[in-house]
Amino acid sequence: MTSHERTDDGRGTGETGTAPVASSEGAPPAALPAPTAPAAAAVVFGPHVALAERFAAILADTGVSHGLIGPREVPILWDRHILNCAVAHEAFPEGASVVDVGSGAGLPGLALAIVRPDLHLHLVEPMLRRTTWLSTTIAELGLENCTVHRGRAEEFAGTLTAPYATARAVARIDKLARWTFPLLADGGTLVALKGESAPAELAAEEKVLRRLGMVEARVVTYGAGLLPVATTTLQVTLGARPAPRRASARRSGKRS
Ligand SMILES: C[S@@+](CC[C@H](N)C(=O)[O-])C[C@H]1O[C@@H](n2cnc3c(N)ncnc32)[C@H](O)[C@@H]1O
């Protein structure tokens, strides 16, 4: 399991804490100063780098004190978290709507919203503490291209649809596909930030993914030569689904 791979129940060695991180006295951990942005931040974020720095400062401050990330993540905020997520923006075309499932501390959702103001990010997250923090952070950053949806991905089938979905450190690809495919429009693509396990997960689950409607899968890496560890994504594209049969026509025996 790589540092980006966690199951939906929060087990694993991922970077972001899934439970409030308390000191031995039970008090919330103190806020830490955000590390200085590396040179790659200006390359990746361009004119939006100041906003990305503000996001880093919020993650190091209330992200830690509210238990969304562990204090040990702060020194690696840029390379392992913010930049790791932001470089994947290349997967999305101009103006796309993207559903980020299991957004947690806004990773990858808020990093993508900052680097690409043309995208619209739908952040799906079941935990109230996290959705409250996400909404506050969006307001603080002045982002107008994000919508927070509280609930499990499965609950939004039929009400939230987009051409793209994304997720990091949420579940294995088979489970992620079951959760996200119902949110994707016909021909839509799931861009899962997977790390080095991507090819193995694809090989292990390809049959299941095809049964669920996948027509194409690709492993695509972003940020090579720029980040200490490039971001490897598993991109799974759906085919067109059969149109639902018209119940009223069937009941009346009419032919259309
Ligand atoms: C390990 S955290 C990862 C958070 C963030 N994506 C990151 O990379 O730091 C997994 C997140 O997925 C959320 N989650 C778990 N099951 C979910 C589901 N069925 N639908 C949507 N989110 C879910 C959890 O509440 C948690 O915030």
Automatic annotation (TrEMBL):
Record's Gene Ontology CC terms?
cytosol
Q: Where are the transmembrane segments?
A: none
Q: Which UniProt keywords apply?
A: Cytoplasm, Methyltransferase, rRNA processing, S-adenosyl-L-methionine, Transferase
Q: Where is the composition biased (Basic and acidic residues)?
A: 1-12
**What EC number(s) has UniProt assigned to this enzyme?**
2.1.1.-
Return the InterPro entries for the record.
rRNA_ssu_MeTfrase_G, SAM-dependent_MTases_sf
The domain of life is Bacteria
Q: Which GO terms describe its molecular function?
A: rRNA (guanine-N7-)-methyltransferase activity
Its annotated compartments are: Cytoplasm
- Stated family: Belongs to the methyltransferase superfamily. RNA methyltransferase RsmG family.
PANTHER family, per the entry: S-ADENOSYL-L-METHIONINE-DEPENDENT METHYLTRANSFERASES SUPERFAMILY PROTEIN
Name the job this protein performs. Specifically methylates the N7 position of a guanine in 16S rRNA.
HAMAP family per record: 16SrRNA_methyltr_G (MF_00074)
Protein name in UniProt:
Ribosomal RNA small subunit methyltransferase G
The gene it comes from is rsmG
